[in-house]
Amino acid sequence: MSESGAIGVIAVTERGRSAADRLQSAWPDRVRTFTGERAGEELRSAFAECGAVVAFLAVGAAVRALAPVLGDKHADPPVVCVDEALQHAVAVLGGHHGGNALAAEVAGVLGAAPVITTASDAASAAPLDSYGADLGFTVADTAPLAPVGAALLSGRPVRLEYDQVWPLPPLAPGASAQTPPESAAALLRVTDCAVQRSGDQQVPTVTYHPPSLVVGVGSARGAAAEEIGGLIDTALAEAGLAPQSVRTLATVDVKADEEGILRAAEERGWQVRVLPAAELAEVEVPNPSDVVRAEIGTPSVAEAAALRAAGQDGRRAELAVAKRKSANATAAVARLHPRGRLALVGLGPGARDLTAPRALAELHRASVVVGLDQYLDQVRDLLRRGTRVVASGLGQEEERARTAVAEAQQGAAVALIGSGDAGVYAMASPALDFAGDDIDVVGVPGITAAVAAAHRLGAPLGHDHAYISLSNLHTPWEAIERRLHAAAEGDFTVCFYNPRSRRRAWQLPEALRILGEHRPPDTPVGYVRNAARDDERAVVTTLEAMLNGGAEDVDMYTVVLVGSSASRTVAGRFVTPRGYTWNSAAETVP
Ligand code: SAH
Fold first, then answer.
1. What Gene3D superfamilies would the database entry show (predicted)?
2. What's the gap in Å between 401 CA and the centre of ligand 1?
3. Which of 375, 425, 427 to mutate to test the pocket of ligand 1 (most atoms within 8 A of CB)?
């Protein structure tokens, strides 16, 4: 007979049984254990009799045992398998019918990681326990992680609340700031305010404390750590602020070795930041003191240090708690405003395994991805659900750069993507032209077309080389021509980007002619169309052949490399020797 609410737990080993006990104590009314010797039979019994199954068994063993009895996926109970080492809770069957949520709950109880393989969830599972960890978030109470994770995985509406916008990755789309409180099955909060007692909350709530507060302190020489710490704790508590949100304790340089201050910080796990009195004297504060000014050269220590440390790197900051005093100490608290984050991400030439893992991490990290349609199509399957995609067409570079910067200025985590490297004839420079110091910028290097092509051609970049774009849409031809002459005279290997389009057909032959004035007709030339893409085509030829009509199949998807006078063709490969005295130097090493 089926007990729809029961979770059948199959445990046939010692470790399995002790883990089963933990599930039993977490869910005393729901767990029914199956501990007979024959795992397969136990599993089939649980599958027939319970509403859900957790098996401390290998996935393969479970699949073999259940294969003959599998029925309709809507009617079968979900099955989760957990490995002996209790590392993974794998949703094996019925993922969308409670299995994914059950895997998350089991993982929560056992400290394992949920393994979800249903397509729509796999890419979106920003793990709740480490959400915002790279920004310094801490989880106020870990107990609600499992039920909130389960609500997210089963697609129930989850409400997101925050008091400031942080540059966070997207959560599953079920979690939204627009979810009305009355229909939310769970709540995620980002706040530097202290958590209410858990009984006050209607639904399971995970609270993240962001590192948004800086405590400023001053003290008389010899003030006790207990007094200083007590003053800070009361200041935070009375303002309803979470101590976990304090990122630093700041003070003036003459207090750098003040025992009481150092110990109060250490006991609370806070770093100490020491600022010169002259720097503090520049900070405008509500409660300056002439006595303090006369003594140490700044009219404020606590307020000024808190504001100054919170406002480092040009961040906006304000006082959250004005100066409070005890007999021998002062304390104040400043709150900083988080900054948006702009990642400039080059995806490499095409093939996914030539995209840096860090670039992929940035795509997951971003809640807004901006780029040209064709590059977005290249990575759309990688984006987490809930990521906002802003696509634009060719030729809209400036608009694309402005959009990305504006989104970051709103506080979001933005990735601006492009092919090759983002800094090579690409979006990084227009974006940084618009970006102020009010956003954080990170760059991820990508393999640029010339480098990808070089490996198809041989080793053409073994010595000095120059990149020249032949597009005269935004650069006057005279400037390009000057550089061509300089590169020709300098005997560089030259890489031509944007070599030829339907409307710009004469530039490449002209560029080759200029180089030909300075190097022999048999100089190797290589070009690669769609390097590292499906229809890649690589050709090694000579300058002479190129000048006699060989440039016809070069287009805007092609990069062209012209050798220096030292470059040669070796076994069909384009090689530029290292030159200098490389070989003889190696021989003379004693
Ligand atoms: N940021 C890109 C360059 C953009 S400019 C990079 O670092 O590679 C666009 C030009 O780059 C094209 O006209 C072409 O000359 C070259 N290019 C880009 N990707 C290429 C590829 N996969 N194969 C050949 N050439 C490519």
1. 3.40.50.11220, Cobalt-precorrin-4 Transmethylase, Domain 1, CobE/GbiG C-terminal domain, Methyltransferase, Cobalt-precorrin-4 Transmethylase, Domain 2
2. 19
3. 425
Count of beta carbons in the 10 Å neighbourhood of residue 182: 7
Domain, as residue range, for 29: 3-117
CATH number assigned to the domain comprising residue 413: 3.40.1010.10
Ligand 1 centroid – CA 545 distance (Å): 23
- Please tell me whether residues 227 and 164 are part of one structural domain: no
Q: Which residues are CB-contacts of 29 (< 8 A; sequence separation ≥ 6)?
A: none
In a structure prediction context, what are the per-residue pLDDT tens digits for the chain, which is 590 residues long?
456 789 999 999 999 999 999 999 988 889 999 999 999 999 999 999 999 999 999 999 999 999 999 998 778 999 999 999 999 999 999 887 788 888 988 988 898 888 988 765 544 556 787 889 889 999 999 889 888 888 887 778 999 999 999 999 888 777 888 999 999 999 999 999 998 765 556 899 999 999 999 999 999 999 999 999 999 999 999 999 999 999 999 999 999 999 999 999 999 999 999 999 999 999 999 999 999 999 999 999 999 999 999 998 778 999 999 999 999 999 999 999 999 999 999 999 999 899 998 999 899 899 999 999 888 888 888 888 789 999 887 778 888 999 999 999 999 999 999 999 999 999 999 999 999 999 999 999 999 999 999 999 999 999 999 999 999 988 999 999 999 999 999 999 999 999 999 999 999 999 999 999 999 999 999 999 999 999 999 999 999 999 998 888 999 999 999 999 999 999 999 999 997 665 555 555 45
Does residue 571 share a domain with residue 467?
yes
Which one-letter DSSP state was computed for residue 549?
A: I
**Is residue 590 situated within a structural domain?**
no
Q: Which of 371, 379, 425 shows the shortest CA–CA distance to 401?
A: 371
- Do 74 and 178 fall into the same domain? no
Q: Write phi, then psi, for 533 (nearest 5 degrees).
A: -120, 170
Residues in the chain, total:
590
Q: How far is the CA of 374 from the centre of ligand 1 (A)?
A: 13
Overall domain count for the chain: 5
332 & 346 share domain: no
Phi, psi for 148 (deg, rounded to 5)? -70, -40
Task: Tell me the CA–centroid distance for residue 350 and ligand 1, in Å.
Answer: 10
Please give the helix or strand (H or E) that residue 465 lies within, else none.
strand 465-469
Whether 423 and 438 share a structural domain: yes
In a domain, 285, yes or no: yes
H or E element at residue 259 = helix 259-267
